[in-house]
Amino acid sequence: MASANSFRSVAGKSVPADHHRTAQNAFLAAVLAIGAGVAGYIVLAETASPSIPFDGASAYRYLKQLCELGPRMSGSPGMAAQQKLLVDHFEKLGAKVSRQEFRARNPLTGEAVPMTNLLIQWHPDRKERVLLVAHYDTRPLPDRDRRNPKGTFVGANDGASGVALLMELGKSMPNLQSGYGVDFLLVDGEDLVYWDNATQRDAGNYCVGSEYFARQYAADPPPYKYRWAVLFDMIAGANLRLPKEGHGVAWTDSKPLVDAIWDTAARLKVREFIPRVEGEVTDDHVMLHDLGQIPACDIICDFGRGTSYPQWHTQDDDPAHCSATSLAKVGWVIEEWLKSLK
Ligand code: 1BN
Ligand code: ZN
User: In whole angstroms, what is the distance from residue 270 CA to residue 264 CA?
Assistant: First the structure.
């Protein structure tokens, strides 16, 4: 996508008059091209590639619907509205939905916050299961936004994207031909954190929902076992890049999972899955692995400044910077990987 920093300044140079006209024409052409690009981009965001058998356009509509609820920080009215929407959605599709409730501390006020993980189960009778995970809370503030770090954060990619993917994937779960059962876990409190300028540190703790879930799973094991856990975080960016995440590759019990998913993507020629490690991130999969002993991986974009998703933790993490095609590609890969499980 074109952004302001793709324009280069020519200030300080003297330019001949006819060169001015050429420059003016070039400028007009650039404006028209950018206009066409923006129009094309908006269409691209709304419609997925028809050759991909996963409905990215529908997933993208879910992403927009979630963002229209406004900020969905843990314990907020937006979070409560989202919970109602999601419980209705997955129950209508035939899933068994349960809530896991606990409390955490609001780092802004110090007050207790009611927290809820949602567990959505397909074929609950199956004893060997796969856990597909996304966080559904949004960060309290867009604290990496240079213009307005105390503004409004709707978390289209960082919050809604994984949830929207699972909302669409749920449609095919009742008919999944597999020995495995599938659970979707929507974790609260992944991002109940803000950047504290006074201390120059993050205030609050990341991943408190997955931590709670993993501790409970280890302390009071259910009558089934999770063979694999796959986390989806920030998978809808318009310029998607998905390098392998470093922890998943380093853990010997989890590397076969990472390889199987990235190999599936290579077979489907989904080139956004990049088969090399570029970094590691302490995300929900670390809790599931280290505390729950579940082999786990993170499908997460390269995020932050100087990367393919510079809108991370800014007000611009909105639907306009997300893409139906990105959702379609990730959904296709994961559906094919699920079908390949023996
Ligand atoms: C992912 C999305 N994360 C937060 N929002 C996890 C994370 C934690 C990323 C610390 C970078 C640093
Ligand atoms: Zn975040």
Answer: 9
Q: Whose CA is nearest to atom 1 of ligand 1?
A: 283
The answer to whether residue 15 sits within a structural domain is no
Q: Render 171-194 in DSSP notation, one character per residue.
A: GGGGG--SSSEEEEEEES-SS-EE
Q: What is the pLDDT of residue 139?
A: 98
Question: Does 269 map to a domain?
Answer: yes
Q: Ligand 1, from 206, 232, 280, 313: best to mutate by most atoms within 8 Å of Cβ?
A: 206
pLDDT means per 10 residues, the chain with 342 residues, are: 22 28 34 41 52 97 98 98 98 98 94 98 97 98 97 98 99 95 98 94 97 98 98 98 98 98 98 97 98 98 92 98 98 98 88
Task: Residue 100: give the domain boundaries.
Answer: 4-8+21-340
For residue 329, CA distances in Å to 102, 260, 271 come to 35, 16, 9
The CA–CA distances, whole Å, from 228 to 2, 183, 250, 287 equal 39, 11, 16, 13
Of 157, 155, 136, which Cα lies nearest the Cα of 90?
136
Centroid of ligand 1 to alpha carbon of 131 (angstroms): 20
Say how many domains are in the chain.
Answer: 1
Q: Which ligand is nearest to the CA of 317?
A: 2
What is the Å distance from ligand 2's center to 58 Cα?
24
pLDDT at 58: 98
Q: State residue 2's pLDDT score.
A: 27
- pLDDT (0 to 100) of residue 304: 83
Q: How far is the CA of 316 from the centre of ligand 2 (A)?
A: 13
> Which CATH number fits the domain that encloses residue 286?
3.40.630.10
